[in-house]
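Figure 2 data, in text form.
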Amino acid sequence: MELLTTIHQMQARAGELERQGRRIGLVPTMGYLHAGHASLLRQLRPDCDSLWVSLFVNPAQFGPREDLARYPRDLEHDLALCRAEGVDGVLAPTPEEVYLPDYAAWVTPGPVAERYCGAARPGHFRGVLSIVLRLFHWTRCRVAAFGAKDAQQLWLIRRMARDLDLELEIREGATVREPDGLALSSRNVYLSAAERVSALALQRALHEGCRLLEAGAAPDTALDFMRRVLVAEPGVELDYLHVADWATLDSLAGTPGRPEWAAGLVAPPAPGQELVVLTAARVGATRLIDNMRPRWGEPRPV
């Protein structure tokens, strides 16, 4: 397995692979890899000739009071997981390598990036899309995989690929969860034992809210139920909770404020319409996100 640390090395290697007719696959990550990342690698492995992982904690997607300095890092663990999953190469550049002192070229992600996590983290998705686009360019990948847990990020990356006519396929990997239901995240390591128990309220609220939506409940009704579950959980401070149309990420019901559809501004869901229930909350000092995607009025098979 190759380990490259500069952009020039990656571009040169990607050019060689492309000239050999090899299809390059990429899983972009911020490191501290876990089973969710491994599932993305296993999904891509059969469909590419050269499988690559990027390890880069991107400072451009962190706000001034966020956890950049303490974000978990373990290069040796990450390399061991990559070897075990048959990865062909790893790109692990430094921030100084990626961002020149006068760096000024950014992707403007559009209004969807200002909702949900974007409202709580201004500039976050500008940083995400800018580095992802450059990773696509450096690696010359033709397929890349992202986890469904970061639903808004996945939606925005797909929209960027469409709008910029990128010649690559964006794959989605299902959210991988701990045995107790908590969505896998590198930030879970921050949680104390008591906070971890409180964090399970996110998955519990989403599960029950999706059950109501699949039974045909109004988005406002499902949202109110989920909000009460989260507000009642000690140690959980709700950031946002929304039921949105997955095709557009337009909110049908959300906190704060009344849903637009109830006011007659947006049509209520159609039978079988794919929705996404998105939430973010602080559990202690740790900000966690989660989501699920039900189809309105369409219960899942038992």
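Caption note: The domain at 186-292 is CATH 3.30.1300.10 (Pantoate--beta-alanine Ligase; Chain: A,domain 2).
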